[in-house]
Amino acid sequence: MDEPDPRFTLANERTFLTWLSTSLTLSAAGIAMAVVPQDVFVPWVRTLLAVVLVSLSLVAAASAYPRWRRIQRALRRSEPLPPPALAPVFGYGVAAVAVVALLLVLFAR
Amino acid sequence: MSTPSREGPADGLPGEHGAEPHGRGLHGPERSTAPQGAGLHSAGLHSAGLHSERTRLAWVRTAATLAGAGLVMGGTGLRGAENPALLVPFALAALSGAALLLRTGARYRRVEQALKEGVPLDETTDGRLVWAGVLCVAAGALVLVLTR
Asked: Which residue ranges does the record assign to the DUF202 domain (chain A) (predicted)?
């Protein structure tokens, strides 16, 4: 098995780190949501939104390392890269939380 | 989408000037395949040196964020926490971030050495450490949100 071009290896490593940074950001967003004052959100809605954000964070973190290794293996074997299957989940998930939070803030006024 | 984009110039990867052969060291005279006067795509920007520097900065950024997240979220959890055990994952995350910050210089030198010698760049110790730290933060955040 040939070693891939080092630039691809380094790009793969940076992508792995970006997934982990995304996970940390989602964790921070979840905790920030959990500490929003009670007069802004109904408590159970606040908790629900925080749990969604932190769950997305867990999924991003848990899948980052196996994906890094899978991509490295694919690069070595010159195989197609595994598609970023979970990326839409994060996009739509965060967008849904943002829309719900915005609506709640607007209707709370 | 699912194939490696080895033909495109995106992200500074080899593109119109042809890909380097696999497994070769990229420091040295063979590194540049661009003609002189090729503008932004000339030798300098296609060197692996910049890639390793960007990767080092990515490690520093992630490690600093991890250490900061551990400290800030631990501090948030400390306020009004009934169970101090909640702080353990955040403390572990902060420690792993600090350890990674200390290791980034040595890691960068190892990568540069591997590039010079053309040996594989495949070290997973730091990867596992940062992964464990981020998992600690996410798990701690979930417990914190559910118990708050």
From this structure: 7-74
